[in-house]
């Protein structure tokens, strides 16, 4: 049998293809098959025991045993659903904690930014919009949909400060400014690592809620949906295709 995907002789997209994250949450749903599966766990073995008892197909003790213990698979599955719900809730809290960690690093970057802007503003006529932007992001609290946008704007402000330092070389000699820029570089790496951790947890969540039967049934009845991972903004993607040197 030939390879379904053949990188040697298969069709090649010479123009390339951009990859985007779909901004859509998919609800978890179950059909009648899952309902029948749960009913079967409770009823199939007891029904076999009842038939065997009426027809004497099995010894009476065996038939009674099937009747009494036949619901055991259903009971076990109920416990499995309890544990599955607990695990999903635990994973949901981890997603919140990972998102909060991103906010924490963003807030630290704003603190660093606030300090360095004050120093640079005293030395040169810094753009007033920069000061307004710093004030706007000083709180460091953002909703999920706003974290990317906030981080991008903070990156932009630091870029403008870097340009200001290039235009005024004497600013680089200030140890406080140099230290602030080093802190910013460190925090940006931490933001990137925190985003990766967040996306890994979101990916785990999106897989687990569709793990049939236990977790999918629990997730569907709890009304859970998939979560959207962090994505790069359109401006960042466009900048990544630019010529830097």
Number of distinct beta strands: 0
Compressed to H and E, one letter per element, the order equals HHHHHHHH
Structural class: mainly alpha
The percent range for strand residues is under 5%
What's the end-to-end separation, in Å?
A: 48 Å
Uncertain stretches of 5 or more adjacent residues: none
Q: Report the mean per-residue pLDDT as an integer.
A: 81
User: Per the principal axes of the C-alpha atoms, what is the gross shape?
Assistant: elongated
Rounded radius of gyration (Å): 29 Å
What are the defining features of this structure?
245 residues, mainly alpha, 69% helix
Can you walk me through this structure?
This protein has 245 residues and is mainly α. It contains eight helices and no strands. Helix 3 (72-123) crosses helix 7.
